[in-house]
């Protein structure tokens, strides 16, 4: 009989690519991961890994087993969720991941509501870039998170996760003039750090109108970005949540580009009472964002 713990390790290896990365994500040592995967091969009776020096690749049998593991892990999550519905009070730990602007504008009121309605539920918040959230959810270091995509940076469906629509925003060109985007081909630009979705969106949106942006400053906090724009240090793209409080001399020109945020959680956990409560609280908080700038679709929590 295959162990669930080892199935999870194999699934993580298929996602992360190296034993070292799996070990780091799941708080194992690399040797422990190797030992567990070797034991899994003995249980399965077939080769699961092809080892070449320090690198490993999954065999066709292992890839098929990963597909089955997604179903198995989701069914176990759903069983746990159904058992939790029998409790009269929400307890335990709920780990929530969100990007910085969402922590300030959306997560804070949701946390107030959750703490009031479920005082025995321990809430743990992690601020992280949305690109890191799917892996953190699968590794069970998060239970629910906000994930994103931009028009110019679509994301592929993530295995092992369910998502639901949450928020759609207009992206603004923040500058000190009313000139259109194409007029800023020779301007200095302010963008988030390389590797983030916002940085890639900046590059691709500019390339779409015929130029590569000259990025001089890098900042991940949109308050900092707007302060730099106000100081004449460059121009930038800022989504609506980041532009709710902008300096008075900064001109925000709406663009056709959109940023879409979704709620994400492990497959099978959507009906868990703690996840359902978090989903409801986040949707309620989302509805309070001023509609003068936030384009928020009237999505309620789609339980189930």
UniProtKB/TrEMBL annotation:
Family matches, as InterPro entries: LysR_HTH_N, LysR_subst-bd, WH-like_DNA-bd_sf, WH_DNA-bd_sf
Gene3D superfamilies, alphabetized: Periplasmic binding protein-like II, Winged helix-like DNA-binding domain superfamily/Winged helix DNA-binding domain
Domain HTH lysR-type: 2-59
Keyword Disulfide bond found: no
Gene Ontology molecular function, alphabetical: DNA binding; DNA-binding transcription factor activity
Domain of life: Bacteria
Keywords, sorted A to Z: Activator, DNA-binding, Transcription, Transcription regulation
Example of a GO cellular component annotation carried by this entry: protein-DNA complex
Family: Belongs to the LysR transcriptional regulatory family.
Protein's name in the database: DNA-binding transcriptional LysR family regulator
């Amino acid at each position: 009989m295959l162990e669930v713990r080892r199935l999870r390790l194999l699934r993580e290896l298929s996602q992360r690519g190296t034993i070292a990365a799996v070990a780091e994500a799941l708080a194992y040592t690399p040797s422990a991961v190797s030992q567990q995967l070797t034991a899994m091969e003995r249980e399965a009776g077939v080769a699961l890994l092809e080892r070449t020096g320090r690198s490993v690749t999954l065999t066709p049998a292992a890839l098929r087993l990963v597909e089955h593991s997604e179903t198995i892990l989701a069914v176990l999550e759903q069983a746990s969720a159904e058992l939790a519905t029998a409790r009269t009070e929400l307890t335990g730990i709920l780990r929530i991941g969100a990007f910085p602007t969402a922590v300030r504008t959306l997560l804070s009121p949701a946390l107030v509501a959750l703490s009031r309605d479920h005082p025995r539920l321990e809430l743990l918040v992690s601020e992280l870039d949305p690109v890191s959230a799917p892996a953190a959810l699968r590794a069970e270091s998060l239970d629910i998170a906000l994930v994103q995509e931009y028009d110019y940076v679509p994301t592929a469906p993530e295995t092992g996760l369910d998502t639901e629509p949450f928020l759609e925003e207009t992206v603004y060109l923040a500058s000190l003039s009313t000139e259109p985007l194409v007029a800023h081909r020779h301007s200095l630009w302010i963008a988030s750090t390389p590797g983030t979705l916002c940085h890639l969106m900046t590059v691709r949106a500019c390339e779409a109108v015929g130029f590569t942006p000259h990025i001089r400053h890098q900042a991940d906090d949109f308050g900092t970005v707007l302060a730099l724009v106000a100081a004449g240090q460059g121009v930038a793209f800022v989504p609506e949540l980041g532009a709710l409080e902008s300096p008075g001399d900064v001109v925000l020109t709406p663009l056709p580009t959109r940023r879409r945020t979704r709620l994400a959680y492990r497959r099978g956990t959507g009906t868990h009472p703690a996840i359902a409560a978090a989903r409801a609280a986040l949707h309620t908080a989302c509805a309070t964002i001023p509609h003068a700038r936030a384009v928020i679709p009237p999505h309620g929590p789609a339980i189930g």
